[in-house]
UniProtKB/TrEMBL annotation:
The keyword Coiled coil does not apply. Keywords: ATP-binding, Nucleotide-binding. GO terms for molecular function: ATP binding; ATP hydrolysis activity. The keyword Nucleotide-binding applies. This is ABC-2 type transport system ATP-binding protein. Gene3D superfamilies: P-loop containing nucleotide triphosphate hydrolases. Residues 2-233 form the ABC transporter domain. Pfam families: ABC_tran. Coiled coil: none annotated. It comes from [Bacillus] enclensis.
Length: 310
């Protein structure tokens, strides 16, 4: 349905996106993962025709949209990372404004607004000014704006950042419903691995401007099928302990986030004596140590060397 071909973007000497290829099939929910600075938002901006690529193409039903962006914008809804609302207007006034941009008017527009307000749970707050809303309510209204014109494709760029758990759960369930009930095609980026696990049929992992892995959740996890993961929790962070672990060739990757150290090793290796010896040498105190099968996050750490939130 939508295809990205060798997409690149340079900002002066910096190549933010480098020859990205990805596709969306009708009715899929696809995850785009990557640490901060990986190039996700720049890629999304090019797909949504907000900025022009330096090289490459974006195709809708096999037709390039770079010269005729109107074709894509008629069927595309975008929920940006930053809140895109007029905070001095009410919820209903925002929906009216953006609805008119999509050339909706009269009874059709008012009917859409009524349905959207019910859908996002803001009917009782429709006449309140948006600047009085909580972060979660603004996020929900942002999604409502993107749905006004019944898009076939919805791009959501980290839509749950900085909101309360109740609003987050609502958004996740709503994304699931839009995909299942309306067969909407969704491209979803997130800083929360569990969201991608819950929502997405396929996943692209992006780092330093390029796609470094892609496939279904099981296919991505199979990258570490011959490995297992050691999860070490310390009483406090210990850079010396982490650096010593990295010196051991038997460890395929060693990553740390605050007090937690994650080590990927071959399944046949049993490194506990070495780990405790290094802890003793560096005066690191191990609170718990656990061996487990690799998760999606373990694969991400293995591929990028960075946590998703880094």
């Amino acid at each position: 349905m939508l295809e990205v071909v060798n997409l690149s973007k340079r900002f002066k000497k910096n190549k933010a996106v480098d020859s990205v290829n990805l596709f969306l099939e009708k009715g899929e929910t696809v995850g785009l993962l990557g640490p901060n600075g990986a190039g996700k938002s720049t890629t999304i901006s090019m797909i949504s025709s907000l900025i022009s690529p330096t090289e490459g193409d974006v195709r809708l039903h096999n037709d390039s949209i770079l010269q005729e962006t109107g074709k894509l914008r008629k069927v595309l809804g975008v929920v940006p990372q930053e809140i895109a609302l007029y905070t001095d207007l009410t919820a209903k006034e925002n929906l009216e404004f953006f609805g008119k941009i999509h050339r909706l008017s009269g009874r059709e527009l008012q009917g859409k607004i009524k349905d959207i307000l019910e859908q996002i749970g803001l009917t009782d707050r429709q006449t309140d000014v948006v600047k009085t809303f909580s972060g979660g309510m603004k996020r929900r209204l942002n999604i409502g704006v993107a749905l006004l014109h019944d898009p076939e494709i919805l791009i959501m760029d980290e839509p749950t950042v900085g909101i309360d758990p109740q609003s987050r759960n609502y958004i996740l369930e709503e994304v699931k419903r839009l995909n299942k009930e309306k067969n909407m095609t969704i491209l979803y980026t997130s800083h929360y691995m569990e969201e991608v696990e819950f929502l997405c049929d396929r996943i692209y992992i992006m780092d330093k401007g390029t796609i470094i892995a892609s496939g279904t959740k099981d296919e991505i996890k199979s990258i570490l099928s011959s490995e297992s993961t050691i999860l070490i929790k310390l009483d406090k962070s210990s850079p010396a302990f982490v650096e010593k672990l990295k010196e051991l060739a038997v460890f395929k990757s060693v990553t740390s986030h605050e007090k937690t150290v994650t080590v990927v090793i071959p399944k046949e290796v049993h490194p506990f004596n070495q780990i405790f010896q290094i802890a003793d040498e560096t005066e690191a105190i191990i609170v718990t140590i656990d061996r487990q099968t690799p998760t999606l996050e373990d694969v991400f750490l293995h591929l990028t060397g960075r946590a998703l939130r880094d």
